[in-house]
Every structure is written in C-alpha cells, then in structure tokens.
Amino acid sequence: MTSSISPAHKHARHSKAATALVLGAVALTSATPALAQYRNDISNDMRRCTAGSGPAVMVTVDHIKTSTGKLRVQSYRATSSEWLQKGRWLSRIEVPAKAGTMTFCVPVPAAGKYAIAVRHDVNGNGGTDLTTDGGAMSNNPSINIFNLGKPHYTKTAFDVGGSVKSIRIQMRYM
C-alpha cells in the first residue's frame, strides 16, 4: 500500500517536529534551574576582577579584628525577596580570616542591583556568637537592636554595570 501523504506534507510535518525539538532544547538550556542560580560556593579568584572583566564586585573588608576563624562574603540581589533570605545568596567566598584588611572578588550574574554581607566567625564553630563574631554589609549601614542586624535592602544596595565595581566594607564587632 502506498502512502497518500504528499512529499510536501511530509516535509512540513518534519519541519514542525524539528522546530518543536529545537525550541524545546533552547528552553531547556536557557532556563536556569531555580536552585542553580543560588548558593554558589566559589573561590576568591582575583583574576575575575581585572580590567575588562565583569560584571563583578571587588570587596575590600577593613577592620578585621583577628586572624582566627573564617571570613564569609556573600552576594545577594538587592530585592526585598532575596536580601539576607535563607538560601537566596548568589555566591559565597569563605576563607581563613586575616587581621586587618582583606580583598575579595565576587562575580555577579549580570548588571543590576546587588548587596554584600560579610561575617567573621571568630572561633570557626559555624554558629553566630554575638559577643565575639563580627558582621558588616555593603554601604556600611547602622546595625542595631531595632533592625536586628538586618537593615533594609535599600540601605545596602549598589549598582553594578558590565565591569568591576569596587566597594569598601567596615567590619563591626560587639
């Protein structure tokens, strides 16, 4: 038995199927899984903050009290739904602390508004010890009992363009 479908019709059917496959593949590769955009532990690679690199944030942290424990630098999108929300940080660099000043390069996914949080876990126990640990945020907002150490995202937000943005953060300890 011969097929009653014309060659032109077969070609159109195959073209539609091929188009559907291509569109499906594009959707899969361009859609970032929801969790893949968050919680990226990265190394402090200063080469990512050289001229012509970006977008990235060069973060200089001053007034680190002691060379014990770990210093953690985390980037967030500067939105109310993401700033300091559990699991909503974009990238994290965690390294042994060094007293004085340390500099970090934190790449960001695209130009936009971001905020940085820094924590010094002085004894390295992974917990927050209010009497010894230090903390700080981009734009150095005041931290007090009224905002419970969580200033509004608009107080910590800064713009990053297509290149490297440099900021300074002052550590604070109780």
Quickly count the helices. Answer: 2
Radius of gyration: 23 Å
| Rounded mean pLDDT score | 83
Oligomer state of the chains in this structure: single chain
| 3D shape | globular
Structural class: alpha+beta
**Are there runs of 5+ residues with pLDDT below 50, and where?**
9-33
Distance between the termini: 88 Å
Largest sheet: 7 strands, mixed
Tell me the β content. Answer: 25-35%
Q: How do the SSEs run, as a string of H and E?
A: HEEEEEEEHEEE
β-strand number: 10
Share of helix among residues? 10-25%
Provide an overview of this structure.
The protein is of the alpha+beta class and 174 residues long. Helix content is 16%, strand content 34%. The protein contains 2 helices and 10 strands. Strands 1, 3, 4, 6, 7, 8 and 10 form a 7-stranded mixed beta sheet that branches. The chain is globular, with a radius of gyration of 23 Å. It starts with 6 loop residues before the first helix and ends with a strand. The model is unreliable at 9-33 (pLDDT under 50).
List keywords for this structure.
34% strand; 174 residues; 3-stranded mixed beta sheet; globular; alpha+beta; 2 helices; 7-stranded mixed beta sheet; single chain
